[in-house]
Amino acid sequence: MSRVVVVDYGMGNLKSVHNALAHLGAEGVTVSSPEDILSAERLILPGVGAFGAAMNELCLRGLDSAIREYIRSGRPFLGICLGQQLLFPSSEESSGVSGLGCFPGHVARLRADGQKIPEVGWNSLDFIGDSPLFRGLNSGCYVYFTHSFCVHSDDNSQVISHTFYGEKFDSAVQNGNAFAVQFHPEKSGDVGLVMLKNFLNLT
Fold first, then answer.
1. Residues with active-site annotation
2. Which end of the chain is more exposed for a tag (fewer CB within 10 A), N or C?
3. Mind listing the pLDDT tens digit for each residue in 6-22?
4. Domains of the chain
């Protein structure tokens, strides 16, 4: 059974992540200490809520440095929703607050050209390149989103999918074995389960 460490910093929807992992026969283990993060073999950083409050919680618990060190190690990592945004240096949501800075770029308010914000519901992914996270899936598949802010990467080589909601944004990024997605694979039905299975199969 694969063992996946899920970071708990008080702002994640952990139950749905654990349920999806259990459906795939994996063991999800919730942790909230730097030591547990650094000893993980696979790590998921979920998140809901505000960028500034989340970074405050990560820093107060000493988890920010541990997450950076874990990602540098090259072991499999997946950031989900706010967990994607936190990997960038800054966000318009929380001026003056520094993010983890693991990916270059910024987080901006979703400019949806008259459409409802937040975006809540199903939208499609336009794959870029050939990422192992999307193995077995076709570009144009639908996943579940709920967000008011979105990522714009400064390194196009790290972008593995775009999504359009009034504007184009980077819905998934990758650097080595570190992946981060704006959508919720754990709430995206069979498509999301394929992605999580691919994550479990990373070496």
1. 81, 184, 186
2. C
3. 999 998 779 999 999 99
4. 3-200 (3.40.50.880)
